[in-house]
Amino acid sequence: MNIFVAKLNPGTDADGLEQLFSNYGEVTSTKVIMDRETGRSKCFGFVEMANDADGLKAIEELNDSEFDGNNIVVKKSEPKPESEGNNYRNNDRNRSNNRYDNRRNDRGRDRDRNDRGFDTSKW
Question: What pTM was computed for the model?
Answer without folding.
Answer: 0.66
